[in-house]
């Protein structure tokens, strides 16, 4: 049964789970996922986006069940409780690699965007150094500090939603017609491509013990997943009515391309403001994943100091982003993160749920047997 070892002073209010989950999902993927999801269902890809978004609620319920049947309220303790110290520790290290890679690809991609769209003459190591220093400052301050970044990372950039009304002036509804004229295979291809845009909420497996009364107030997690799904659908409809399918397939950053049409008398390049504001959106993603990888290592190897682990992780980020310029290596990292993320949420989490369900049934049976013998 879950018994959190986290001090109450380190916990955050339940409603902040909304910002943590939504903030960890809204990152780089929002800027480009539209051009990948059309590979299957084309203009009907919005159906896949909706179905994948709704499926996350089932996965979230599975996660809650797993956490409820762990000794310390997280996947780290569930691994060691179920598989033992050695195998459980190995599984925890695999999770560390995953969270490390997610944060890494977000940093690398954002630096790439800045170099392409804004500062083509500034080296990668300079951007990498600044971002790593800021991430160290935030993560080293603790989970409450990360939660604060997630809160403002959702609130402040919300004004960007108003740009949708400007872009809709150019909408052509014929681009999203006809409806429902694709096979199941096409929808599955689009669902696979849209899955990357929803990754991030799985970090709740690590930080859930820091949520006060998390089990009783899990509704905030569902609200966050629903909000992300609605925003994704809106963005898909706006993009699909702005570009033809042929044009969209050739774009690397469709969201940024749409933003370029926005002009004001006092501001010609609105995408600059958009990109710098987007930094507030990606910081929660980076910080949550870095913190998760550090916490897993710290709890698996308790003699290690968290500060040293954090420095090691950020040093790895700095080295990678300073030296890797090969698009092949970048594509491999993207493929690894997307594939491992989908395996984690759609295969591994259901697998752990089945184990958790069996464990809970066995535990209840033992309790009933003990109660009968005491009568």
Key terms:
Amino acid/polyamine transporter I, mainly alpha, 375 residues
Structure summary:
By secondary structure, this protein is mostly helical. Helix content is 72%, strand content 0%.
Q: Approximately how much beta-strand content do the residues carry? A: under 5%
Mean pLDDT level: 86
**Shape estimate:** globular
CATH superfamily: Amino acid/polyamine transporter I
Q: What is the class in the CATH system?
A: Mainly Alpha
CATH architecture: Up-down Bundle
Please report the number of helical segments: 15
Question: How much helix, percentage-wise, in residues?
Answer: over 70%
The value of Rg in angstroms is: 22 Å
Largest sheet: none
Order of helices and strands: HHHHHHHHHHHHHHH
Distance linking N and C termini: 24 Å
Describe this structure in words.
With 375 residues, this protein is mainly α. The protein has one domain (8-349): Amino acid/polyamine transporter I (Up-down Bundle). The protein has 15 helices and no strands. The longest helix is centred in the C-terminal third of the chain and has 48 residues, at 327-374. The protein is globular and about 75 Å long.
């Amino acid at each position: 049964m879950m018994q959190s070892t986290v001090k109450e002073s380190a916990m955050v209010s339940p409603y902040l789970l909304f910002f943590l989950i939504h903030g960890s999902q809204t990152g780089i993927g929002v800027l480009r996922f539209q051009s990948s999801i059309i590979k299957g269902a084309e203009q009907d890809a919005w159906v896949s986006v909706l179905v994948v978004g709704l499926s996350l609620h089932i996965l979230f319920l599975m996660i809650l069940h797993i956490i409820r049947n762990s000794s310390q309220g997280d996947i780290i303790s569930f691994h060691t409780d179920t598989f033992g110290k050695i195998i459980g520790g190995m599984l925890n290290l695999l999770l560390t690699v995953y969270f490390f890679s997610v944060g890494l690809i977000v940093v690398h991609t954002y630096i790439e965007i800045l170099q392409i769209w804004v500062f083509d003459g500034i080296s990668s190591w300079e951007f990498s150094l600044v971002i790593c220093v800021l991430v160290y400052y935030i993560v080293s301050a603790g989970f409450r500090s990360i939660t604060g970044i997630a809160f403002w990372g959702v609130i402040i950039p919300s004004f960007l939603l108003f740009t949708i009304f400007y872009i809709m002036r150019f909408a052509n509804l014929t681009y999203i017609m006809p409806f429902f004229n694709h096979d199941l295979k096409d929808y599955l291809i689009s669902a696979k491509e849209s899955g990357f845009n929803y990754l991030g909420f799985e970090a709740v497996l690590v930080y859930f013990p820091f949520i006060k009364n998390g089990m009783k107030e899990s509704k905030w997690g569902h609200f966050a997943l629903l909000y992300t799904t609605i925003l994704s659908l809106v963005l898909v409809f706006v993009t699909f009515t702005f570009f033809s399918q042929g044009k969209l397939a050739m774009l690397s950053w469709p969201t940024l391309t749409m933003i370029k049409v926005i002009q004001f008398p006092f501001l010609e390049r609105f995408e600059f403001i958009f990109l710098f504001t987007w930094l507030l959106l990606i910081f929660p993603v980076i910080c949550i994943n870095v913190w998760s990888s550090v916490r897993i290592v710290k709890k698996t190897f308790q003699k290690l100091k968290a500060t040293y682990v954090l420095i090691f992780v950020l040093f790895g980020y700095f080295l990678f982003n300073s030296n890797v310029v090969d698009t092949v290596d970048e594509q491999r990292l993207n493929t690894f993160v997307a594939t491992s993320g989908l395996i984690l949420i759609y295969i591994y989490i259901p697998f752990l749920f089945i184990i958790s369900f069996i464990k809970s049934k066995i535990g209840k049976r033992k309790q009933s047997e003990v109660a009968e013998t005491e009568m």
